[in-house]
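Quick one: co-fold with adenosine-5'-diphosphate.
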Amino acid sequence: DLSQKVRLKGSSELVELGESFNSMTHTLRRDQELRQNMVADVAHELRTPLSVLRANIEAMQDGVLETSPANLESLHQETVNLGRLVEDLRTITLAESGQLKIHRQETDVSALAARVVEAMRTQFDSKSIELAVEALRPVEADVDSDRIEQVLRNLLANALHYSSSGGRVVVKVERNDSGAVISVADTGIGISAEDLPHIFDRFYRVDRSRARATGGSGLGLAIVKQLVEAHGGRVRVESALGKGSTFSFSLPV
Ligand code: ADP
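Sure, here it is.
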């Protein structure tokens, strides 16, 4: 009787061990798949700008393309975009593997938002898009101000890219029971219900050609999500095609 009990206990432990081993293998395999996908995505993203650079330089060497300051500037811009892509990749890789360091300090998020808005104002002016900030009261939160600035810059860059002239963008900072809530609302092209669940995936773009032309890396929102979640916050989006989008994120205090 006793031996049977032991055997039963033993076998149930074995079953448990087997199950946890299986789920571990499953997780490892998933991690490996994610990593392989990432490498494939990166190779794909680097290919286009590199072949543009190469073709243009070869055309200059062959004398088909003038080495004018304007042509050199567009090549230079291409390398700047590549540099940004590589920097974004570094951030996303660190964040996805939980290695991103968050240096928290008590920060007035309202003042931070106002500062970012002013830094980007000329870009909005030159596209005739109105930019307003509603962040009158100080809202203190323990955040990494560089990272939160990056989040705001990414959201504002999108609001700018996906709006046409005459549009309006409003940045709001509010305080609720659990912390700070920051939102960026635009009157731009909007996002369809089918695309909405995917926009935070890395390299996902609703319209690939359009995104390329505006120099976006397709990593902006993936970085936003990672950075906000690294602060213990959450990102939300509401959007209607042709009407506009509102991205908001919370930061627990
Ligand atoms: P990208 O570099 O292409 O802008 P993001 O990760 O920042 O990459 O955004 C992913 C996609 O989500 C964009 O390609 C675009 O289709 C859509 N998107 C992001 N922000 C907005 C917005 N404010 N209005 C409309 N579409 C947006």
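If it helps, The chain has six helices and seven strands.
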